[in-house]
Design brief:
The protein is of the alpha+beta class. It has 2 domains: about 130 residues, Roll (2,3-Dihydroxybiphenyl 1,2-Dioxygenase, domain 1), CATH 3.10.180; about 90 residues, Roll (SH3 type barrels). The protein is built from 6 helices and 13 strands. The strands form 2 sheets. It has an 8-stranded mixed sheet with strand order 2-3-4-1-5-8-7-6. The radius of gyration is 20 Å and the shape is elongated. About 30% of the residues are buried. The model has no long low-confidence stretch (mean pLDDT about 90).
Length: about 240
Protein backbone atom coordinates (compact mmCIF):
# COMPACT_ATOMS: atom_id res chain seq x y z
CA UNK A 1 0.00 0.00 0.00
CA UNK A 2 2.68 2.49 1.04
CA UNK A 3 5.59 3.09 -1.34
CA UNK A 4 7.80 5.64 0.42
CA UNK A 5 7.85 8.73 2.63
CA UNK A 6 6.95 11.56 0.24
CA UNK A 7 7.54 14.55 2.49
CA UNK A 8 7.65 15.93 6.03
CA UNK A 9 5.15 18.74 6.60
CA UNK A 10 6.25 21.62 8.83
CA UNK A 11 3.81 24.26 10.08
CA UNK A 12 5.26 27.78 9.85
CA UNK A 13 3.95 31.28 10.34
CA UNK A 14 5.65 32.64 7.22
CA UNK A 15 6.81 30.49 4.29
CA UNK A 16 9.30 33.03 2.93
CA UNK A 17 10.97 33.59 6.31
CA UNK A 18 11.19 29.85 7.04
CA UNK A 19 12.53 29.07 3.57
CA UNK A 20 15.48 31.36 4.26
CA UNK A 21 16.69 28.71 6.71
CA UNK A 22 15.94 25.65 4.62
CA UNK A 23 16.96 27.09 1.27
CA UNK A 24 19.25 30.00 2.07
CA UNK A 25 21.29 28.52 4.92
CA UNK A 26 20.93 24.78 4.47
CA UNK A 27 21.04 24.92 0.68
CA UNK A 28 17.88 22.90 0.05
CA UNK A 29 16.51 23.83 -3.41
CA UNK A 30 13.22 25.70 -3.34
CA UNK A 31 10.60 24.11 -5.59
CA UNK A 32 6.93 24.85 -6.14
CA UNK A 33 4.98 27.41 -4.12
CA UNK A 34 1.23 26.90 -4.20
CA UNK A 35 -1.85 28.33 -2.52
CA UNK A 36 -4.52 25.79 -1.51
CA UNK A 37 -7.56 27.94 -0.79
CA UNK A 38 -9.68 24.88 0.06
CA UNK A 39 -7.26 23.99 2.87
CA UNK A 40 -6.62 27.58 3.92
CA UNK A 41 -2.86 27.26 3.46
CA UNK A 42 0.06 28.29 1.30
CA UNK A 43 2.75 25.65 0.84
CA UNK A 44 6.32 25.52 -0.45
CA UNK A 45 8.23 22.34 -1.27
CA UNK A 46 11.98 22.11 -0.86
CA UNK A 47 14.55 19.54 -1.90
CA UNK A 48 15.12 17.22 -4.82
CA UNK A 49 14.91 13.48 -5.11
CA UNK A 50 12.17 11.29 -3.64
CA UNK A 51 11.59 12.97 -0.26
CA UNK A 52 10.92 16.65 0.39
CA UNK A 53 10.18 19.19 3.09
CA UNK A 54 6.82 20.97 2.86
CA UNK A 55 6.44 24.33 4.60
CA UNK A 56 2.81 25.11 5.43
CA UNK A 57 1.62 28.65 6.19
CA UNK A 58 -2.02 29.35 7.16
CA UNK A 59 -3.82 31.94 5.06
CA UNK A 60 -5.93 33.05 8.02
CA UNK A 61 -6.70 32.18 11.62
CA UNK A 62 -9.54 29.80 10.75
CA UNK A 63 -7.48 27.03 9.15
CA UNK A 64 -6.48 23.87 11.07
CA UNK A 65 -2.82 24.80 10.59
CA UNK A 66 -3.44 28.15 12.29
CA UNK A 67 -4.97 26.32 15.26
CA UNK A 68 -2.00 23.93 15.29
CA UNK A 69 0.38 26.92 15.50
CA UNK A 70 -1.63 28.42 18.36
CA UNK A 71 -1.41 25.19 20.36
CA UNK A 72 2.08 23.97 19.55
CA UNK A 73 3.96 26.67 17.71
CA UNK A 74 6.05 26.03 14.62
CA UNK A 75 7.25 22.48 14.04
CA UNK A 76 6.57 19.13 12.42
CA UNK A 77 2.90 18.98 11.42
CA UNK A 78 2.59 15.68 9.55
CA UNK A 79 4.35 12.87 7.72
CA UNK A 80 3.22 12.07 4.19
CA UNK A 81 3.51 8.65 2.59
CA UNK A 82 2.99 8.03 -1.13
CA UNK A 83 0.43 5.49 -2.32
CA UNK A 84 -0.28 4.21 -5.82
CA UNK A 85 -4.08 4.17 -5.46
CA UNK A 86 -5.52 6.40 -2.77
CA UNK A 87 -9.09 5.18 -3.25
CA UNK A 88 -7.98 1.62 -2.50
CA UNK A 89 -5.81 2.73 0.42
CA UNK A 90 -8.64 4.71 2.03
CA UNK A 91 -11.17 1.90 1.49
CA UNK A 92 -8.79 -0.69 2.96
CA UNK A 93 -8.05 1.35 6.07
CA UNK A 94 -11.74 2.19 6.61
CA UNK A 95 -12.55 -1.52 6.37
CA UNK A 96 -10.08 -2.05 9.19
CA UNK A 97 -11.98 0.48 11.31
CA UNK A 98 -9.58 3.42 10.97
CA UNK A 99 -10.93 6.96 10.75
CA UNK A 100 -9.80 9.97 8.74
CA UNK A 101 -9.59 13.68 9.52
CA UNK A 102 -11.80 15.56 7.08
CA UNK A 103 -12.89 14.44 3.63
CA UNK A 104 -10.91 11.49 2.30
CA UNK A 105 -9.65 11.55 -0.33
CA UNK A 106 -9.62 15.20 -1.41
CA UNK A 107 -7.57 17.49 -3.69
CA UNK A 108 -4.04 18.27 -2.53
CA UNK A 109 -0.97 20.21 -3.64
CA UNK A 110 0.39 19.75 -7.14
CA UNK A 111 -2.84 18.34 -8.51
CA UNK A 112 -2.61 15.22 -6.35
CA UNK A 113 -5.18 13.61 -4.05
CA UNK A 114 -4.65 13.27 -0.31
CA UNK A 115 -6.21 11.84 2.84
CA UNK A 116 -5.25 12.34 6.49
CA UNK A 117 -5.53 9.59 9.06
CA UNK A 118 -6.76 10.88 12.39
CA UNK A 119 -3.82 11.20 14.85
CA UNK A 120 -5.61 8.99 17.39
CA UNK A 121 -5.12 6.12 14.92
CA UNK A 122 -1.36 6.63 14.57
CA UNK A 123 -0.05 7.35 18.05
CA UNK A 124 -0.53 11.10 17.86
CA UNK A 125 1.13 11.49 14.45
CA UNK A 126 -0.91 13.10 11.65
CA UNK A 127 -0.30 10.79 8.70
CA UNK A 128 -1.08 11.94 5.17
CA UNK A 129 -1.61 9.59 2.25
CA UNK A 130 -0.82 11.10 -1.14
CA UNK A 131 -1.34 9.96 -4.71
CA UNK A 132 0.44 12.05 -7.31
CA UNK A 133 -1.35 12.95 -10.54
CA UNK A 134 -0.74 10.78 -13.58
CA UNK A 135 1.32 13.58 -15.09
CA UNK A 136 3.60 14.90 -12.37
CA UNK A 137 4.36 18.61 -12.44
CA UNK A 138 8.09 18.92 -12.93
CA UNK A 139 10.19 21.26 -10.86
CA UNK A 140 11.29 24.36 -12.69
CA UNK A 141 14.79 25.71 -13.14
CA UNK A 142 16.26 28.95 -14.55
CA UNK A 143 16.25 28.95 -18.34
CA UNK A 144 12.97 27.08 -18.71
CA UNK A 145 9.73 28.45 -20.16
CA UNK A 146 7.18 28.77 -17.35
CA UNK A 147 3.66 29.92 -16.59
CA UNK A 148 3.37 32.03 -13.44
CA UNK A 149 -0.06 32.22 -11.82
CA UNK A 150 -0.40 35.26 -9.56
CA UNK A 151 -2.96 36.46 -7.06
CA UNK A 152 -4.07 39.78 -5.53
CA UNK A 153 -4.72 40.78 -8.27
CA UNK A 154 -5.11 37.70 -10.45
CA UNK A 155 -2.64 37.63 -13.32
CA UNK A 156 -0.90 35.10 -15.57
CA UNK A 157 2.59 35.62 -16.92
CA UNK A 158 4.52 33.57 -19.49
CA UNK A 159 8.24 33.69 -20.02
CA UNK A 160 11.72 32.39 -19.32
CA UNK A 161 12.54 31.83 -15.67
CA UNK A 162 15.66 33.82 -14.88
CA UNK A 163 15.87 33.34 -11.12
CA UNK A 164 13.99 31.54 -8.35
CA UNK A 165 14.58 32.51 -4.74
CA UNK A 166 12.84 32.58 -1.39
CA UNK A 167 11.53 36.09 -1.94
CA UNK A 168 10.13 35.45 -5.41
CA UNK A 169 10.88 34.64 -9.05
CA UNK A 170 12.27 36.72 -11.90
CA UNK A 171 10.72 36.01 -15.30
CA UNK A 172 11.42 37.55 -18.69
CA UNK A 173 8.27 37.37 -20.76
CA UNK A 174 4.79 38.81 -21.20
CA UNK A 175 1.43 39.09 -19.51
CA UNK A 176 -0.51 36.07 -20.73
CA UNK A 177 -3.58 38.17 -21.56
CA UNK A 178 -1.54 39.84 -24.31
CA UNK A 179 -0.04 36.68 -25.80
CA UNK A 180 -2.08 36.64 -29.03
CA UNK A 181 -1.49 40.32 -29.83
CA UNK A 182 2.20 39.98 -28.93
CA UNK A 183 2.50 36.90 -31.14
CA UNK A 184 0.85 38.73 -34.05
CA UNK A 185 3.40 41.55 -33.79
CA UNK A 186 6.31 39.10 -33.58
CA UNK A 187 5.00 37.08 -36.53
CA UNK A 188 5.06 40.20 -38.72
CA UNK A 189 8.75 40.70 -37.94
CA UNK A 190 8.17 43.80 -35.87
CA UNK A 191 10.13 44.45 -32.70
CA UNK A 192 8.30 43.22 -29.61
CA UNK A 193 10.43 43.07 -26.52
CA UNK A 194 9.43 41.16 -23.41
CA UNK A 195 9.33 42.52 -19.87
CA UNK A 196 11.56 41.33 -17.07
CA UNK A 197 9.52 41.15 -13.88
CA UNK A 198 10.24 40.15 -10.30
CA UNK A 199 7.19 38.61 -8.68
CA UNK A 200 7.35 38.48 -4.84
CA UNK A 201 6.57 35.12 -3.26
CA UNK A 202 3.44 36.37 -1.48
CA UNK A 203 1.81 37.00 -4.90
CA UNK A 204 2.69 33.63 -6.42
CA UNK A 205 -0.07 31.03 -6.58
CA UNK A 206 1.95 28.50 -8.60
CA UNK A 207 4.74 28.25 -11.16
CA UNK A 208 4.41 25.56 -13.83
CA UNK A 209 6.47 24.45 -16.78
CA UNK A 210 5.00 25.58 -20.11
CA UNK A 211 4.00 22.15 -21.41
CA UNK A 212 1.37 20.75 -23.72
CA UNK A 213 -1.74 19.49 -21.89
CA UNK A 214 -4.03 17.08 -23.67
CA UNK A 215 -4.75 18.47 -27.13
CA UNK A 216 -3.60 21.99 -26.21
CA UNK A 217 -0.16 23.06 -27.39
CA UNK A 218 2.24 24.85 -25.10
CA UNK A 219 2.76 28.56 -25.76
CA UNK A 220 6.36 27.75 -26.63
CA UNK A 221 5.16 25.35 -29.35
CA UNK A 222 2.79 27.95 -30.77
CA UNK A 223 5.59 30.52 -30.90
CA UNK A 224 7.92 28.07 -32.68
CA UNK A 225 5.26 27.32 -35.32
CA UNK A 226 4.69 31.02 -36.02
CA UNK A 227 8.26 32.32 -36.10
CA UNK A 228 10.44 29.21 -36.16
CA UNK A 229 12.21 29.78 -32.87
CA UNK A 230 11.61 29.48 -29.13
CA UNK A 231 11.23 32.33 -26.67
CA UNK A 232 14.76 32.09 -25.25
CA UNK A 233 16.33 32.36 -28.71
CA UNK A 234 13.93 35.14 -29.66
CA UNK A 235 14.87 37.18 -26.60
CA UNK A 236 18.58 36.75 -27.30
CA UNK A 237 18.00 37.98 -30.85
CA UNK A 238 16.06 41.15 -30.00
CA UNK A 239 18.21 42.36 -27.11
Amino acid sequence: MFRKIDHIGIAVRNVAASARLWSGRLGMPLGEIETLASEGVRVAFLGRGETHVELIEPLDGASPVARFLERRGEGVHHICVAVDDIETAVATLRAEGMTFAGEAPRPGAGGGRVAFLHPKETGGVLLELSQKPAVVTLRVAPGEAVLVYLQNPKEKFWGILRDAAVWGVTVEGIDLSSFESWLAIVSQGETAHATTALFPSHRIEKVLLDRATGDAESLEERLRKRIGTGLADFLDRVR
